[in-house]
Amino acid sequence: MKAIIPLAGKGTRLRPHTMTTPKPLVHVAGRPVMSYILDELRELGVDEVVFVVGYLEGVVRDYIAREYPEFTSHFVVQEVQDGTAGAIALAEPWADEDLLIVFVDTLFEADLKLARALDPKWAGVIWAKEVEDYQRFGVIVTDETGAMTKIVEKPSEPISKLANIGLYYIRDAPLLFEGIHHVLDAKPGATGEYYLTDAFQYMVDQGARIRTAPVGGWHDCGKIDALIATNAHLLDTTRGGQAPGATVEGSELRGTVRIEEDVVVRDSVLGPNVTLERGARVEGSQLRDCIVGSDAVIVNSRLHDSIIGAHAHIEAIRGEIQTAEYSRLVGEA
Length: 333
Known about the structure:
The longest helix has 16 residues, at 224-239. Strands 14, 16, 17, 19, 20, 22, 24, 26 and 27 form a nine-stranded parallel sheet that branches. The chain has a seven-stranded mixed sheet with strand order 5-4-1-6-11-8-12. It has a six-stranded parallel sheet with strand order 15-18-21-23-25-28, with no helix packed on it. It folds into two domains: 2-220, Spore Coat Polysaccharide Biosynthesis Protein SpsA, Chain A; 240-330, 3 Solenoid (UDP N-Acetylglucosamine Acyltransferase, domain 1), CATH 2.160.10.10. Helix content is 20%, strand content 34%. The protein is of the alpha/beta class.
């Protein structure tokens, strides 16, 4: 089994943090978003990955080479942002096995081992999450056996509440790419893009059976407010705690926080839902619902719902702010 991971987007909804960092490498709860997914793939036994890159591709290549050298990695550049079908089409030269296709805008709680034990009658799996605000998503319509019959983008009528989360297993790769070429030969969608979901529809129309499977959790990392909410979830579940090498003096910790090695906190109030990455320093400040990058300094400030880039210096600031790495922001004392 191989994996295909599209990474070419610019991540404009996460600016300024994506000005120098690709969206999949933006941190949440102390780690790049993509690292959680790559660890899942590694545990599943996947050892070959096709990365479809574009924006800041060199940063992605360096990260994969440094942190995941055990993968056999292929990189292909999506020169034109023509949609998800166009992105996956670029991976066809390596698609000679079963495929996992993973979009890394979200973190998920899904049983990927299902792909290893899938009954031969199924051509693939689409993981989905039931939602109330179905109009925001592509939703999956199923028959009584749980097989997909169609996918509808942002329906106005409540035909289904099963939202497509961007996680797929495809056993019949040749039929998938036949569908992708069929989509690319037609007119693009309303946004001028070609959708991978239309290729899945092609597969179903040709008689393939694609199973839907539930996810226990689905956490958005594609927008600033969503990233902060996902940080809170991870701290509450698996990523909270204080490293033994951190210094916390004259300070109050409220709720769940993450304080990494070499962090210094003095005369401050932290929490709930605050991540301080390695080497950060906070003095005389109050922080809640914040992600603070490594070696950042925050002095005499009161911040909430903020993401502070690595090596930034923030002093005498109140409210909600977003600063890229190496930023300097000083208010009036």
